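Readers of this paper often ask what the protein records in our data store actually look like. This encoding replaces a full spatial description with a residue-level series of whole-number codes. For reference, a complete record is included directly beneath this paragraph.
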Amino acid sequence: MTMIVEPHARPDLRRPGVGVVKVSTWRVGTPERQRAAVDAIEAAWRTRDWPDVGLLSYTVHTGEDGETLLHYSEWTSEEAYEEFVRVHRDDRNAEIDAAVPGIERVALHSYERYRSGALNPDDARVPGCVVIVDVEFDGPDADRQRDWVDGVFEALRTDPGPHPGGISGHFHISLDGTRVLNYAEWESAEAHIEALAAPGDGIGADTAQWTKVRTYPGVAGGGVKRYAPALSLSAGAS
């Protein structure tokens, strides 16, 4: 199976057939090592055939913090991911580690996509920034995950002045019932910073709907991090 390097390092976030999404972080230490790690990842994957085990796409972004990489991969099933780990992962990681020693691999979580939305469905802008919004609850509850996301969509629908720099949001719920992740595409990091600086507590106007989201019971933690698109690979024709 061949491999496609996606333009603008942008995965297909509405791809059909995705059964599970894996999201993880690597700590590499410095901006120079970020770039070297992305180059090593691309080299390790380009010199091998695409693994025909149900991997649909693999995306890497560089953290604004100058020390982390975000990994976002789409799979047909959990079994497909486990087969990749068993057969294909170690040799790729060994090559990457030889090029950039000392990578720390942390925080792997499994998700399913729940809802996606955009200010303008025909928006052709290329994202210059990916914002990862991570929400953690105080225990597993699949209904609560979906209810929180539905509340965000209601808040967005009723927001009198959404920031024009937002392009799309893709909400994922963790398979263990404890987390929500929003993979949000923005025109630029500056646009997201400007939106955060607007009146209110974070993104969104001072409305009852946004207040309900911000004060939702059971939210135990989370965070917001910005990334620059770096590399996205996907399965091509056999």
User: Anything to note?
Assistant: The helical segments are 31-46, 78-87, 89-99, 142-158, 189-197, 208-214. The chain is about 30% helix and 35% strand. The chain has a mean pLDDT of 95.
